[in-house]
Amino acid sequence: MKGIKKYLKDNLGIILALVAMILFLYVYPKTHNTFLTTNNIFNVLRQSATNLMLACGMTMVIILGGIDLSVGSIIAMSGVLGAAAVVWHGLPEIVGILIAILSGLLFGLLNGTIIARTKIPPFIVTLASMNIAKGIAYVYSGGKPIRCMTDAWKFLGAGNVAGIPTPVITMFIVFVVAVLFLNRSRIGRHIYAVGGNDTAAKFSAINTAKVKLIVYSFSGLMAGLAGITIASRLYSGTCTSGDGAEMDAIAAVVVGGTSMSGGSGKLGGTLIGVLIIGILNNGLNLMGVNSDWQYIIKGAVILSAVYMDFLRNRKKAS
User: Fold this and answer.
1) Domain spans in the chain, listed from the N-terminal domain onward
2) Which of these, 239, 245, 210, lies nearest to 226 by C-alpha position?
3) Which domain of life is it from (predicted)?
């Protein structure tokens, strides 16, 4: 009970924002009859599932004081590689899924190794790997979607278990594992320590290079899982499937209260941030808002969240 009270207190602002959005979309004439239907709620959760996967990894990266711009391109690459393995090479669907997930993990390992062993800023490293992953997707597929229509392929992204969409179940499992990892493990405590003060963490005998390697590997793993989930939902691996995904993940993390300066943040806040971004996207579509304006609105939400983070940090400093 104390944990629930603390959670509500720590996230009161964004919980109120979430409730306000839900109430607005419920009473708004264009969305009144469609927003709170069972089908639309599952649709929001299904679309938010992959963003939560990315956001779990991104939360740890940002707590660490870093950034990962490569996750959107890894989504495209992993989806293309997984679909190609099944369609072009005749491998079983489970092998294609594993290839996709492992390709994300390998890119995460690459990012983590370079960041841990050099002083190259994470922004530059992940910007480079973002282009490499996107290039692999285009070169391997020839820029064309790779269609895969088998039932086994569709299950991960478009199937359901007892009426619950499979991506929602995957999202729940990923979230629980990520919370336990960040809050209950030794490495989780080290992530906060390194993000708070890298030098002090080294003097405390923390292997900062190992922590960075694990965090970026986890982020890549989550991107690979999100990529194959999206490819399954779309029945194809496409080069454009992850476009802008990194921005939605970063937005969810920042809206959820994780500080861009590192050292602080909670996955519980990230969960609410993901729901806010998911409901925002869904609500704007139901309201018929032009897609061009949606970019402006989401950008304003991100800027507002970053500004609130700035005010929080300034208040702490004073």
Assistant:
1) 40-242
2) 245
3) Bacteria
